[in-house]
Amino acid sequence: MRHDQRQPDDLRPITVERGFTRQSPGSVLIRAGRTTILCTASVDEDVPPWKKYEDPPTGWVTAEYNMLPGSTSPRKRRDRNKVDGRTTEIQRLIGRSLRAVVDFEALGARTITVDCDVLEADGGTRTLSITGGFIALVDAVTSIEDPGFDSRRVFTDSVAAISVGIVDSQILLDLDYSEDSIAQVDANIVMTGSGQFVELQGTAERGTFSDAELAAQLKMARAGIHQLTLLQQETLGDKWPLDTIREI
Amino acid sequence: MRHDQRQPDDLRPITVERGFTRQSPGSVLIRAGRTTILCTASVDEDVPPWKKYEDPPTGWVTAEYNMLPGSTSPRKRRDRNKVDGRTTEIQRLIGRSLRAVVDFEALGARTITVDCDVLEADGGTRTLSITGGFIALVDAVTSIEDPGFDSRRVFTDSVAAISVGIVDSQILLDLDYSEDSIAQVDANIVMTGSGQFVELQGTAERGTFSDAELAAQLKMARAGIHQLTLLQQETLGDKWPLDTIREI
Amino acid sequence: MRHDQRQPDDLRPITVERGFTRQSPGSVLIRAGRTTILCTASVDEDVPPWKKYEDPPTGWVTAEYNMLPGSTSPRKRRDRNKVDGRTTEIQRLIGRSLRAVVDFEALGARTITVDCDVLEADGGTRTLSITGGFIALVDAVTSIEDPGFDSRRVFTDSVAAISVGIVDSQILLDLDYSEDSIAQVDANIVMTGSGQFVELQGTAERGTFSDAELAAQLKMARAGIHQLTLLQQETLGDKWPLDTIREI
Amino acid sequence: MRHDQRQPDDLRPITVERGFTRQSPGSVLIRAGRTTILCTASVDEDVPPWKKYEDPPTGWVTAEYNMLPGSTSPRKRRDRNKVDGRTTEIQRLIGRSLRAVVDFEALGARTITVDCDVLEADGGTRTLSITGGFIALVDAVTSIEDPGFDSRRVFTDSVAAISVGIVDSQILLDLDYSEDSIAQVDANIVMTGSGQFVELQGTAERGTFSDAELAAQLKMARAGIHQLTLLQQETLGDKWPLDTIREI
Amino acid sequence: MRHDQRQPDDLRPITVERGFTRQSPGSVLIRAGRTTILCTASVDEDVPPWKKYEDPPTGWVTAEYNMLPGSTSPRKRRDRNKVDGRTTEIQRLIGRSLRAVVDFEALGARTITVDCDVLEADGGTRTLSITGGFIALVDAVTSIEDPGFDSRRVFTDSVAAISVGIVDSQILLDLDYSEDSIAQVDANIVMTGSGQFVELQGTAERGTFSDAELAAQLKMARAGIHQLTLLQQETLGDKWPLDTIREI
Amino acid sequence: MRHDQRQPDDLRPITVERGFTRQSPGSVLIRAGRTTILCTASVDEDVPPWKKYEDPPTGWVTAEYNMLPGSTSPRKRRDRNKVDGRTTEIQRLIGRSLRAVVDFEALGARTITVDCDVLEADGGTRTLSITGGFIALVDAVTSIEDPGFDSRRVFTDSVAAISVGIVDSQILLDLDYSEDSIAQVDANIVMTGSGQFVELQGTAERGTFSDAELAAQLKMARAGIHQLTLLQQETLGDKWPLDTIREI
């Protein structure tokens, strides 16, 4: 039993509120335990310079990640003069993960920026950003009003992410901060709703890990991602952009 | 009648949620119309270098202000390499305003940082930051557990702020963005609960203004601040740090 | 009697030297007591990007403010990696104040930059920058040689500024540094030659202030600004761009 | 057959020159095909601030990565005002990988910095930095002259790294730039000489990948790392800090 | 005859005003033709970190150089985010030149910073900064009130500087901007009052130069520096820190 | 006899390896004693903005200089947030020196960037960068394939550089770090193969120097540069872009 009464393969309680703010077409407040993230998605009818002259024109999806100062205790100093390495790494991961399920030609010559601002941090912020960011992205894409634009053609799959780790030789799903800080191995798995890997990052924070330990972690993550995909589908309701969700 | 059915001297509908996040001892989500701000207050048991050797030791209150990228449409670019002039000006105003009602000797040798992160911007973000920031500050101060520390001695008064402006020759309270962007005069008034000025900034954005116009604006602002003070008192309940609230 | 033998409503002795340097069309060395500022105004036959496509084309006036390292004792460290908040605030104020009396359509598609470099600082640098900057601006505008350009149509009014404060419960005009550093209230007033407010910033540095105290400060500032306007008119002689100066 | 006549599971020809420069105790020029990296390791008899008060005192290993402008065609602009995200990500990976095989208590209160400067880039720079950086690290550690310091106790294992990817549905080892730029999946595997994972990063650059594809990549990488470990052992000769090398 | 009626070996008319501002103990406004520089020298009773533990304690002299925006036409953009290469080069030269004539042990554990702010630039700003900076430095040193400090022991010599160049195959002294911009060779010579070289920088801006051309330039510079030394001596009057001035 | 058995006018043993890396058309590893520099030269078929509209179109040559962290002991911190003054000064010198022998019209509208990365520093890095940079520049220019481009017309002369200094009253050629750090005078001389000065920088690091001392240094430097020119000619073989080399 874990310190918060979860079983090893339990996700934390998770809630999603769409339309939390109204200036961005996608605005999702997602909470998992004591981790809270505001994911907003904005549409810009322009593309980066290196996409300007593509034929046919294609779009782009990018992400930014930031922790608010009050999201941690003690307070986190604001990144005002530079972006630290961890932040850069995370926002690149979020961007790559979201792009993996988008058809840029169907999106057309526009850029969607998904901002993941962590209001409260208790572990798992990068994976929750991907899971919530996908919902904000769908809301932003379906808000596009353009004759001839078909938002359902934009998504080739859904995407979600979860962490898994080894703590005291036991494999645990969805680590919170207190677990993460003592984990021997910490892995972040990004998968599509259809069960394919998008990204896989496993790090031995202390010592190393074996083939067998890797396999066990991947299996537990796969089950967690399936639950998250169901949650995304339920939350989005008729905005869900895919026909089916694969059974695992 | 204004575009949103308000009378000239009406505030926008305002809601406050205390304890919105849990990592910071003060965490207030304050919404006025479509302006939404998360004010968190953190306590650091240390003081700035220039306060280190004071006898008796005294504390400090400082503020930071930031607009999230998704708070505006089109998306606001993140300030990652520098802080723009407007941001600096606003966070200095918030800090000065909160410090005006704090007794630093009673606070003791600790620093409280009030972070005002704008989740949604529709005008009046700096004044709403002060009004909400005061509530977060009170929550942070009353969270301090230290024998011999008396949180009720820290506050000499309460503080709140409101904007007032001249639009089409008419004086209006609590301008939203659409009103602010066409105002001839824009003033921000910071007052204590007991009706004294803390700060007064009036700017003729187009043309100039007379003595009489100034007087009329100040009168309307004073009434608005009284309503905000009552709201602060009601929200804080038995955490309200002052004995009485003066009638105007 | 004040420490330098002034009455409460006395300005400091003030001198102005036009044409102090010769590379800029406007170059004014203005001294008030031991505060010395070099205001230069340069004309650029171009406009900011957001003005490029205006029809009819209109111009722009902007200001920069800087304190030289030797202007204070101890020496002020040079701002080489960033601009501090106070500097930003001041140069934004100077720019807004000068723009309040300029007709941008009459100016035409050009930008005038007014640089206020403080050579010696003893209080009141921001207000003296506005008073001197207006003179440099007039010199720069009248230097423009362009058939069809009428420099007299550019100015709708003149502008000057002064500080006023409360020290030991007494209201004082034009505070020097030693007075400013112990003032309970410090206000900067920017007015036109015709007696209208352009900007009004009052801050309670210690405690707060009442309606009556505000009124008394404004009255004293108004008289000071009238004297400064007369000085500007006398200094500029036949370059004075306005027909009359209003009695107060 | 690959464009450079390699079989899918062939490494590129690899050479190592120890002592390439003489100011750093570890200085290794490592070349794999047309990728050339200078790895230097410096010893500082000090530790980062957060290690100052540890008891018993322990050391630290950190890494920096940089591409020289002439390492690519067209020339790569020098990172002089900021470090780009990719650079940060890579140098964090190198540092974590080297630390995984070091016993910080045996190292004692000193910091070793491994600098990986890419002189010529043709793919695989991050993995070659780890493989070469380990050799430089060993040279630096064995150069420490301190009675009571036993360099053989510092290393718990060796570490090396290799890339593996899927190009045209075929799994390939040690991708060069031309292969990497068209890969569907790109994975970087860091393993110890004894065959344990240290880090595993798999990214679907285009599309996604399955469990089976992951397994095949890991198997090929494992064999490549074994070859690299043998090379490290042969290069270091009697400086090799471990007793045995495990058969796979 | 030159465009301003000078002979080839004529200096421009030069004036010096000591005590131009009053916050710094040394404050010199020096004008040569249309080049105007404010040199202020400040005393800090502290030394740089690398001098803290010297025994006997010794002092330091450093310099900063800056061009004001209004010093050139068109206006020079302010260096606010970085210092450009030319500025760095010049301020390092000024610092080295002044240090060449200072006895740091006699100065004692204090730092003097000489700020050279160019108010008006018409060529020769770096050499005029050295010539004027020496005067400000002497004023700052003689202002030090410390029993046991003997300001006359601080200076081992005086220092001044001048430019010399080749324009249209003719050697010219003290080039103004219009001459400098077409010079084939541009040299800056820093010498002591006793006729020794401190620094010598000759650059062929177009083509190259011979031994004979170098010798002719040095001879003309030497005569110019002698005149500048006499001017420094006359300006400083009884503050002149040296016993004699050598005839050349 | 010097500490490394050289005579006062001996150069250090020097070796040059062309084509050290293969991504840049010019790539030269040059070693003099324990100073090692990688000079790469890259061709960009574009010109800086201020050259865009020249008629006839002309090219540009620029240089960058950088010391790798492992080039010194103790390790040199990487310049990642700013370029220090010394670096800027050196790379400007290298650029000016190389440009002195290039005919920009013959080069045509292209930019060549010469990067000098110091792998190992033991004094004389700036002069060795010029000597080696010239070889890399020739290799880059002769690599240009463009009908109508004649690489032999690009060079008007060759260029090389050497340091000379006064140590213990003795004039020494090609100072290493141990000599440079105690030199009274340190001069860097840049000359063409035909014996003309390009640049001359002499600095009295301690005290000053006389006319006679200057003359003796220049004579010794001239002989050293002649040897370096012969080495450049031999190294480049039939790529040597000039017809003859002048006897001294």
From TrEMBL, chains A, B, C, D, E, F:
Residues reported to bind phosphate: 86, 124-126
Any GO MF annotation of the entry: tRNA binding
EC number, UniProt record: 2.7.7.56
GO BP term, pick one: tRNA processing
Catalytic activities: tRNA(n+1) + phosphate = tRNA(n) + a ribonucleoside 5'-diphosphate
Source domain of life: Bacteria
Keyword tRNA-binding on entry: yes
Domain Exoribonuclease phosphorolytic: 11-140, 158-223
Stored Gene3D superfamilies: GHMP Kinase, N-terminal domain
NCBIfam families, alphabetized: RNasePH
Subunit comment: Homohexameric ring arranged as a trimer of dimers.
Xref: PANTHER family: EXOSOME COMPLEX COMPONENT, EXOSOME COMPLEX COMPONENT RRP41
Protein name, UniProt field: Ribonuclease PH
